[in-house]
Design brief:
The structure holds two protein chains of two kinds. Helix content of chain A is 81%, strand content 0%. Chain A is an all-alpha fold. The chains are: A mainly alpha, B alpha/beta.
């Protein structure tokens, strides 16, 4: 009840305001212009492509975290959540509308648009033999799965905490921990099973120096494991369920 | 529990505690269909808490509540389909215009031809005097305009129950008058349950009154019954002349129990409390005018206003509470 109306409102907030083109511009500048500069510089094209995937896997999730926590906490603090929930609006529908609208918006502006442009940038600069459209699409799909991981994590934490501090701290800590060898090694040493189900190995070289799964997919190579993919998808579902469960119990 | 015939809101022992603080203590409330019920109480009495419980925005820690016979915890969605609600400090999406806000609200309740919905939106905007500001973003609205928008969005869906938390807040006297007119007009079609601090408004339009204090119900009933509770028989007189002499003459009368002086604009005004209104009506004016130099400019039997009753009820409740504590 209320999902269609709320989703329409969230979509309008994306596509009928300047938000969508600011996002498009942001990712084009951060990702595609950086790729172009790397290609024009000393970096090999394949390395430049790998850097693009890593930056997309790091940058767009930061936006997802910021938007995700604000979509719940912002409405709670401003009082609009209480107003909407005083209407015939089911609480799960409130959370799902946020997730779907943000997910679609980030997909288009942060994944599809820069991804398509990057594909042609790379092919035009010497990777036409190595890079297939399907492989590249699969790689961008993993990027998107990672974005969804951080988006649903931020949504869930925003229903568990009333302040932005803990939400941002926890999500950014998880995002950045995979980038740093010492934290990666720490997790590998103490909770190795967790590494297998986190999105880190999908996107980042990690402490072990492995080639990320996104790069393997982009180059059409076989994947050594699909556990991080299944694990990340599972986390997304779990985070969403917890977010809905917690939000149903929230008082305004 | 089936809905009592003609009862829209019914609570039984409704209780809410926040971290050990009793915000609402075992409230037994009844609001009848097509009535205007004024919900009063000092700040922190539990009025907004009660409203939030009825709407499912908070969960009770004890007791039950029903609106239209539906349980407030288990059937809240069905309740909210028939309710229009104005919060105490209404908040909307700032980037939306008034029209968009009403459209968004209306789509929670209506499906069907767009023309019909737009017509209802236009009608509602006109009703609250926002037709010329319909396409301005809410962020540009003044407090009074936001309040008007709040009233508009509360009634856009033709609710069976209007719950208004301080509907006249932020409004100038004309705006307040308009709100009261809207409420009076709507009573034929809907039940109105509203909280306010403006007791004059309650007295003007309400059929029943509920008074809360510190989370507890201290009075509930038709407004005439409540007004009849006014303590004692009191006559208000305003005099010019030998005030001391007049006081002496009245003080010696056995049926005069007290004289309370209120200075007004250079004259002397008294509230004279009496035990026997019949004797007071026959003798009081004669006693005052026994001095030929005395002028009486006002003489009337004091009508207890709701403010007086409210103060008495609250003071009485606090006195009983204090006595109970002492007894422990």
């Amino acid at each position: 009840m209320g999902l269609a109306n709320m989703l329409a409102k969230e979509s309008r907030a994306w596509w009928r305001t300047r938000r969508w083109w600011i996002q498009c511009l942001l990712w084009l500048l951060l990702l595609n212009v950086t790729l172009w500069l790397n290609i024009k510089g000393d970096l090999r094209v394949d390395q430049a492509g790998l850097n693009f995937l890593m930056m997309a896997g790091l940058g767009v999730p930061i936006a997802a975290i910021s938007m995700g926590q604000d979509s719940i906490l912002g409405e709670r603090h401003s009082g609009t959540a209480a107003w909407v929930l005083s209407k015939p609006m089911r609480r799960p529908a409130f959370v799902l509308a946020k997730l779907i609208a943000l997910g679609l918006g980030l997909l288009v502006t942060g994944v599809v648009l820069p991804g398509v442009i990057a594909y042609f940038q790379l092919r035009a600069n010497g990777l036409s033999q190595l890079l297939s459209a399907s492989g590249w699409a699969e790689a961008m799909g993993l990027i998107y799965l990672s974005i969804l991981f951080y988006l649903t994590l931020a949504l869930m934490l925003a229903t568990l905490f009333h302040g932005r501090g803990p939400v941002l701290a926890i999500t950014l800590m998880i995002l950045l921990a995979g980038l740093m060898p010492w934290s990666y090694d720490l997790v590998d040493k103490h909770v190795p099973w967790l590494l297998a189900v986190l999105p880190w190995d999908m996107l980042l070289a990690g402490g072990g120096g492995q080639v990320p799964l996104t790069a393997l997919l982009a180059l059409g190579r076989p994947l050594p494991t699909v556990t991080p993919i299944i694990g990340t998808a599972g986390w997304c579902v779990l985070f969403t369920i917890v977010a809905i469960w917690r939000f149903r119990r929230e008082e305004f | 529990m089936k809905e009592s015939i003609g009862t829209v809101i019914e609570t039984c022992g409704l209780t809410k505690a926040y971290k050990g603080v009793q915000a609402l203590k075992s409230l037994d409330l009844q609001v009848h269909q097509n009535s205007i019920c004024g919900f009063l109480g000092p700040n922190g009495a539990g009025k907004t808490t009660t409203i939030k419980l009825l709407l499912g925005l908070a969960r009770p820690t004890g007791g039950t509540g029903r609106v239209f016979g539906k349980d407030i915890e288990k059937e809240s969605d069905q309740i909210r389909r028939r309710v229009g609600y104005l919060a105490q400090d209404p908040r909307y999406y700032e980037y939306m215009t008034a029209r968009e806000t009403l459209r968004f609200t209306a789509h929670f309740f209506f499906e069907g031809p767009k023309a019909g919905i737009e017509s209802r939106i236009a009608e509602t905007l006109d009703l609250v005097g926002l037709a010329d500001k319909a396409d301005r973003p809410v962020k540009t609205f003044s407090g009074g305009e936001r309040q008007r928008l709040g009233i508009a969005q509360a009634q856009v869906n033709y609710p069976d129950l209007l719950i208004l938390d301080e509907p006249a807040a932020s409004l100038d006297p004309m705006g307040r008058r308009d709100v009261l007119e809207v409420m009076t007009r709507l009573r034929k079609h809907t039940t109105i349950f509203y909280s306010t601090h403006i007791l004059d408004d309650v007295q003007r339009v309400s059929d029943t009154v509920v008074i809360l204090n510190k989370g507890a119900l201290v009075a509930q009933g038709p407004i005439e019954e409540l007004l009849a509770r006014g303590e004692g028989n009191v006559y208000t007189v305003t005099i010019k002349g030998d005030v001391d002499g007049a006081r002496q003459r009245l003080s010696t009368q056995s049926w005069v129990t007290g004289i309370q002086e209120i200075s007004r604009n250079g004259s002397t005004a008294w509230n004279v409390s009496v035990t026997d209104p019949a004797t007071a009506e026959a003798q009081l004016l004669r006693l005052l005018l026994a001095d030929e130099q005395m002028t009486v400019t006002e003489f009337l039997r004091k009508q207890h206003g709701l403010e007086d009753i409210f103060m008495q009820v609250i003071a009485g409740a606090e006195h009983r509470e204090g006595g109970h504590d002492v007894g422990e």
